[in-house]
Amino acid sequence: MIDYHIHTDHSIDADGCLRDYCERALAIGLKEICFTNHCELDKERNDNLIRFNGEIIPIDNDSLLTLQNEISDLKEYYRRKGLDIKFGIEVGFFDGIDERLKEVTNGVSLDYLLAGIHCLDHICIDSSKECNHYFEQHSAEELLNRYFTTMEVLVRSRLFDAVAHFDVYKKYGLNFYGEKVRDFDREYVYHIFKLMAEYGTGLEINTAGLRRYNAFYPSVEFIQLAKEAGIEIITVGSDSHKVEDLGKGIKDAFEYARSYGFSAVYRFSKRCRFPLDIK
User: Fold this and answer.
1) Is the peptide bond before 275 cis (omega within 30 degrees of 0)?
2) Is the pLDDT of residue 279 over 90?
3) Distance between CA atoms of 195 and 45, rounded to whole angstroms?
4) Concatenated DSSP letters for 94-161?
């Protein structure tokens, strides 16, 4: 089993050090993990931060290189124990991120580059503290239109290995809008999935939704559409922000992928992908 979405205490909204996660991974039988701490780069927000030894500093090229070195220092020790460690980041995507992302990742040896949409109009819809500021100003239809047009820009950028939590807007949107937030444009989302299939951009099965509302991201209607559109690259991650959530739901995520006809989930090394047969 593998887990390709993990936040340590380097992310300002997460707890647990690198070693805590590695020891937990061994204890629950994971064979490979990828650390994907947050990399938020929107200069109009105040969350462009990373934590080292309790000190919070801005994210920049130097801080990512420091994080890389911390992870690298553990790789050989845990490899001998049967655990492969990969280094990734989860980028909070916004239109126009390209130059900033290039700047902060220059010379950084990433295994995996994951992207998710956390903010619209510089407001975090993935935060209980902020989401209503956006929701109160927009209808469910407007939210979905803006979210998926941004998603198309993300995919067309061809900067990323995979898309995280594809329908994360439901995290708080379901409570605010009710069932209206499920009424997405199937034809447009199918178009986005076709682009992902064409570009080889992966679709993450994220198990955090199981812990919030008993459904994966992406939920059934999306995973079916993704398969119809020809997506083959599937990744899996717990999106853990605390040690006890590491690996939660991963076994079920493998079965979820199998049940919709996917034959593999994908691992990454130096931004190259490798299938892990799940048939």
Assistant:
1) no
2) no
3) 30
4) -TT-HHHHHHHHTT---SEEEEE--EETTEETT-TTTHHHHHTTS-HHHHHHHHHHHHHHHHHHT--S
Rounded Cα distance, 44 and 134, in Å: 15
Q: What is the DSSP letter of 217?
A: B
- Nearest to residue 184, comparing CAs of 224, 134, 126, 233? 224
**Paired tokens of 51:** 């934590």
What b-and-e string marks burial along 109-146, b requiring 16 or more CB atoms within 10 Å of the CB?
ebbbbbbbbbbbeebbbbbeebbeebbeebebeebbeb
Judged on CB neighbours under 10 Å (0-12, 13-18, 19+), 175 is middle
- 139 vs 213: which has the higher pLDDT: 139
DSSP code of residue 85: E
Q: What is the mean pLDDT of the chain?
A: 97
Pick from 38, 40, 28, 20: nearest CA to 2: 28
The predicted-structure confidence for 134-188, as pLDDT tens digits, reads as follows 999 999 999 999 999 999 999 999 999 999 999 999 999 999 999 999 999 999 9
The residue whose two tokens read 């939660």 is: 248
Instruction: Answer yes or no: are the C-beta atoms of 42 and 119 closer than 8 Å.
Output: yes
**Sequence-ordered list of residues with C-beta below 8 angstroms from that of 45, at least 6 positions apart, any chain:** 119, 122, 124
pLDDT tops 90 at residue 213: no
Lowest mean pLDDT among 23-27, 83-87, 101-105, 213-217: 213-217
Helix or strand (DSSP H, E) at 75: helix 61-79
Element (H, E) at 51: strand 49-52
Query: Within 10 A of 90 (CB to CB), how many other CB atoms are there?
Result: 28
At 228, the pLDDT band (50, 70, 90 cuts) reads very high
Sign of CA dihedral 140, 146, 150, 153: positive
